[in-house]
Amino acid sequence: MNSTPSTTASQPLLRISLHDLRTWLVTKEGILVAASLLAIVGGILLRIGGLHEQERILLTGSLSLCGIIIGYDLLRDVVAREFSSDFLAGISIVTAALLHEYWAAVLVVFMLSGGQSLERFAMRNASAILAALAQRMPHHARRRVGSKIEEISLDDVQIGDVIEIHPHDICPVDGVVIEGRSSMDEAFLTGEPYVMPKVGGSTVISGAINGEGLLTIKATALARDSRYQRIAGVIEQQATRRVRIRRIADSIASWYTPFGLLIALGAGFISGDPVRFLAVLVVATPCPLIIGIPICIIGAVSSAARRGIIIRDTSALETATTCSAMILDKTGTLTAGKPSVTSVTLYGAWQELEIFSLLRSLEQYSKHPLATAIVDYGEKLGVATREVSNVSEQAGRGLIGEVSGYRIVIGQWSSLTEAGVSIQENPIGPACGVIINDRPAALITFRDIPRKESRPFVEHLAQHHGISRVMMLSGDRDAEAQYLASLVGINEAQGGLSPEEKLSTLASVQQTHRTIFVGDGINDAPSLQAATVGIGLGNKSDIIGESADVIILDPSLERVDAFLHLSRHVRRIAFQTGIGGIALSVLGMVAAACGYLPPVAGACVQEAIDLAAIINALRTTSPRMTEGDRFG
């Protein structure tokens, strides 16, 4: 339950263990490869020894075994009127056997089953990063009932259950700490350290690794609805996507198959030689399309996951490079989401050092950007931290807790006016009010500066990604939005927008441009869903996770750029793999039809084309595919 597999930044293109081989050998593909390879090696040795009759017996015996397996699949396809990618290969094997071209038949069996086996291993390696993520999730939880602790399945955890998390355990569900004190590493998938202290009232998220302390939490979500499970759910989606991608390729094979048959029939009829018909069929199998494209896509998904980029909809890989407009949210997207304290107004008899000692102690239990600013400011002042208890954080009310006997509420600045404080002018920029023991204590204002990479990123879009129109939309005041836009080099900016107004602006832009929308807030969810490609930064909420096509877990414009580069690489590699491979196969068919490529040589040529296509497709698993440009 507390083991945490690790992954490396790079890995071999095909890494196969003894367990993988044992598992593979009992599959249909494994049996076919073993039987055909045995026949090929044995046949060569027998031919060298001049034992031609024994050679024929070995080849025909192997073909008999393989023919039963392949013939069944071929007959099933014919009955179902499904002419998939393997149909041409099946016909060529049967034809070769009837023409006593046993070597050609065995080579085609090896080519077909070998290609499928390479696909199996390549898919497994391409999905290794995502598979490690799935394996990392615990399957059980320790539930406390009275004074007893029982181990239950994760699926049996109910909202409100009391769950114990032992030191170094992986948190099984989202919840709230009710007992204990510890810290949690929430850096799952991003690979960068992010450790948060946890006390009573602190929220915990599934997938985080507990530190040295024992924590007791109350579950606030079912396992299937927890944050980590939603991210890990991308694993299950890959199987569906793989099937869908393969079906798309098979639909292309539905016209390619008759095309190959037509050339083969024409070659056989014109030449009067049935072997010519066989030679064309042998090189007609569209394996580069059928095997290479799924490997290309799944490899790209895994490469992205390695960089903390979760691709929920693989069509985004294709459409991102066709977009000519980008709309960006302001706070947390173009800004770092790390505001700094600009002014402090005190009320009553409070002193700045005293109040920030209290605030720093409480705010370390919050991940709100303003909380980080307060903690940083307290550190600069050199104030000490104190004991904290009864921490809670509620939408609309802010952070509440008890520090050294004081009840502290840190919320919206308007709470001060509600408490009777007269504020002459509304604060410029973000601000919060501090209430201590139900009395006004301080008004703190902040300023959120642009990310250092924001302006270089914006300037980079037109030249390197074909983005001709860049806009910024914000819910903040229009004056603030315009000021920030001028700092980062955006000419079109609108502020004071509601989520509905953002969506309306997006719809207007999409009348003339395919559009990428980049945002990080709940109010961005409608636009993320409506855009051609929606990119969510940080996965701060389940709503973003459900709305965005792509999720950047570690908020960074550099990683947005990395995704755009990956999209371009995938389109190029997929084109090379699919279209390039098919073009080579067609050239081989023409050569075979003209009599320059006999069946055995044709099988060898097609196997070389398949291998080249697979190796080319595996390039998307390389970490270089997600290397973007450096900004700032």
Detailed description of the structure:
The chain has 632 residues and is an alpha+beta fold. Helix content is 51%, strand content 17%. The strands form four sheets. The chain has a seven-stranded mixed beta sheet, sandwiched between helices. Helix 9 runs antiparallel to helix 20 (557-593). The radius of gyration is 31 Å and the shape is elongated.
Mean pLDDT: 80
Number of helices: 21
- The percentage helix is 40-55%
**How much is the radius of gyration in Å?**
31 Å
Largest sheet: 7 strands, mixed
Spatially, the strands of the biggest sheet line up as: 10-22-21-20-11-18-19
Tell me, briefly, the overall form.
Answer: elongated
Number of beta-strand segments? 22
- The helix/strand class is alpha+beta
Strand content: 15-25%
Gap between N and C termini, in Å? 41 Å
Oligomeric state of the chains present here: single chain
Low-confidence stretches: 1-14, 189-193
Give the arrangement of secondary structure elements.
Blueprint: H1 18-25, H2 28-48, H3 52-80, H4 87-98, H5 102-126, H6 128-136, E1 140-145, E2 148-153, E3 162-165, E4 175-179, E5 182-185, E6 195-198, E7 203-204, E8 209-210, E9 215-219, H7 227-271, H8 274-282, H9 287-306, E10 309-311, H10 315-319, E11 325-329, H11 330-334, E12 340-346, H12 352-363, H13 369-381, E13 388-394, E14 398-403, E15 406-412, H14 414-418, E16 431-436, E17 439-447, H15 454-465, E18 469-473, H16 478-488, E19 492-494, H17 499-509, E20 515-519, H18 525-530, E21 533-537, H19 542-547, E22 550-552, H20 557-593, H21 599-617
Parallel strand pairs: 11-18, 11-20, 18-19, 20-21, 21-22
Antiparallel strand pairs: 1-2, 1-3, 3-9, 4-7, 4-9, 5-6, 5-8, 10-22, 12-17, 13-14, 14-15, 15-16, 16-17
Helix pairs in contact: 2-3, 2-5, 3-4, 3-5, 4-5, 4-8, 5-9, 5-21, 6-7, 7-8, 7-9, 7-20, 8-20, 8-21, 9-20, 9-21, 12-13, 20-21
